[in-house]
Each structure stands twice: as C-alpha cells, then as structure tokens.
Amino acid sequence: FGLLAGVGFFRTTDTNNMAQLGNVRLVQPNVAQNKKWDPVKVPSHIERMLALTRGETGDTRRDIGLVVWPEASVAYRLDQAELVLQAAAQAARAGAGPQARVVLGINRTDGENWYNALADVGPDGRVSALHRVMLCV
Q1: What DSSP character marks residue 55?
Q2: Which of 15, 54, 121, 128 has a CA positioned 20 to 30 A from the CA of residue 77?
C-alpha cells in the first residue's frame, strides 16, 4: 500500500503539479490475505473499495484529486477489468470530485509472465499510465 502511495508521490516531480493534485484519499478495505483471491468474495471486496472511494464511511470531502487503492487490489487481470476500472472512476467522480484520478494495483500479463502493475485511471475510466511494479526483497 505504501509502495503505491510512494510511487504516486514521486511520479509528480513538479511542485506546482503536486499543489494541483490536492487532497489524497487512501483506500484500505482490510481484507485478509487468505480471503483476498476467493472468487466468491472478490465482488464484495471491490464494492467495499468503491464505497470507500465514494467516501461512504465518513469522509465526505469532495475536493480529492487522487484516490489510492492498494497493491493488487483488483483481483482480475488488467485485460479483464474494464468494468471495475469504470466503476472506480465513477466512484471517484461521485465521492471525491469530478477530476479525481484513481491509482490502483492490478495484475497484468506479458505473454506467459505475470506482473503487478500500477494503473493510473482517469476520470473517464481509461488507464492513462501503466507501470510494471518490481519488488526487491
């Protein structure tokens, strides 16, 4: 989760752009790792993140410039997640502000290889930037 926020912070290098970004809403659905990929529970996990994105848990500010979802928060591959990305953008517009962007972690494939990726989803629901995330431990 911190990695996504850090990448988003360092992605904006111009201090004027950082000021224009405005407030940031961090979304954490509190899902246990052993339940995160359960296909029966995935829709409820996504709905929880959408509700948090809309500010339905008490944060009613509508001046949010960026909503950050956790690493691998979408349990579908990028090429199968169009509806989720559209829903995330819609939730951000409704609950954060008309120009709010969503940065989220998602899996993508390149041939046989799977990668964690960081997707920047614009207010229109389209991915405007995609970064392959490589973790070194």
Answers
A1: T
A2: 54
Residues 96, 59: contact at Cβ < 8 Å?
A: no
Residue matched to tokens 């409704």:
94
User: How many Å apart are CA 7 and CA 116, to the nearest integer?
Assistant: 13
pLDDT score, position 20: 62
> Scanning the structure block, which residue is given the tokens 């930037």?
129
Q: State phi, psi for 79 to the nearest 5 degrees.
A: -75, -5
Mean pLDDT for back-to-back runs of 10 residues, the chain (137 residues): 56 53 86 88 94 85 88 90 96 91 91 88 94 64
Q: What's the first-to-final CA gap in the chain, in angstroms? A: 16
Rounded Cα–Cα distance for residues 96 and 41 (Å) = 26
pTM of this structure: 0.80
pLDDT computed for residue 11 by the predictor? 57
Distances in whole angstroms, Cα of residue 56 to Cα of each of 14, 33, 81 = 32, 24, 23
